[in-house]
Design goal:
Shape: globular
Radius of gyration: 22 Å
Order of helices and strands: HEEHHHHHHHHHHEEEEHHEEEE
Number of helices: 13
Distance between the termini: 53 Å
Strand order of the largest sheet: 1-2-10-7
Largest sheet: 4 strands, antiparallel
Helix content: 40-55%
Amino acid sequence: MFGFNVQKDVSTTQSIAHRVLRTLLTANLPKLQPILLNRIGEAFAKDLASSSFLGDTDWKLMPTFAMARTIVVKVNSLAFVGEKLSNDEEYLQAAIQYPEDVFLTAEILQVTPNLLAPIVAALTTKNGRAINTLIRRLGPLIEERIAENSRSEGQSGKPLDCLQWIISSSPKKNPWNTEKIIQEFLALWFGSVHQMAMGFVYTLYDLCAHPEYIEPLRLEVSEQFTKRDSLENMPLLDSFLKESSRLNPSDSISVRRKVMKPFTFFDGTYIPVGNWACVPQKAMMRDPDTYKNPELFDGFRFTSQNSVKYTERGSSFTDADDSFPFWGLGHHTCPGRFFAAGILKLMVAHVLLTYDVKFADESKSRTFTWRTAIVPKSKTALLVRERK
């Protein structure tokens, strides 16, 4: 579909994805932090400037999920493709639309007869408008980078972004062509937008619902934010993000695995071929045997309880274990979680230092469920104003 052929070298693809996200992107995040933070500020200011005031007040009404998606796409694009494309409005719109097309089309195709699938897919994606725009924009840049890569060895002087690292990590004996690099890039991009955007939305909701946390968080951020290792030294913010994610996962289940051959668990449970095994993450993260008062929001739950001022590190937001399967488990734990956590901290820190936020209407429901997914409602808005 859309000119792509299925690639079967899964092990190489997974290895490169892990190297790009877990190793290179994570290691370079401190270097990228200043420009990413600047992009966050620009994106917020632009979105707020286009929002309308609430009557004669200094509060502006901002649709939260739409704002979060836009800002995440602008910031992630800078880290994924560099300065040029991340400022290309047509590219950015396609980058927002592409994951939405995939989600919607996948859901519809599950109840669509195979014979009609190509027609339905063409309709739901508008003949692949978003993905074709991404292919058209990425192709020339990749070919330019491949040519430059062949002229110089090493990473010195080369762009610090995921696209470059995919190209540089391509197998030496059988280098990936432009088509394969685009496929790999789109796979990484697909997982980089919605989870982060939803996490940001739920964190803002929790700040509004529990305003008593704002001042201690602001104090921590203001003391640490200018330091080079600030992302690793904000335990209160780290805990707040983890608690928000614990109570607001984007899906009730995680770690989906399709059974390719019959499997029997240690307790004798048998699963035949074609079935799925999953982890009930929402229930696990509210298990009273693991969490004290599991239904209660405790923003500093994961800080060290040995410190009255909560200044020592406790459990980290990026930890992945049986009590917190938010990032997955085992070998397939999300390799981009360190980058995602870092960007969430930068965005929330920017809001804390720059804006006041509150609910426009506390009584309205702010989420809906679709099968096992839990999604923020697109029309829910927050009131935002610049701090005085």
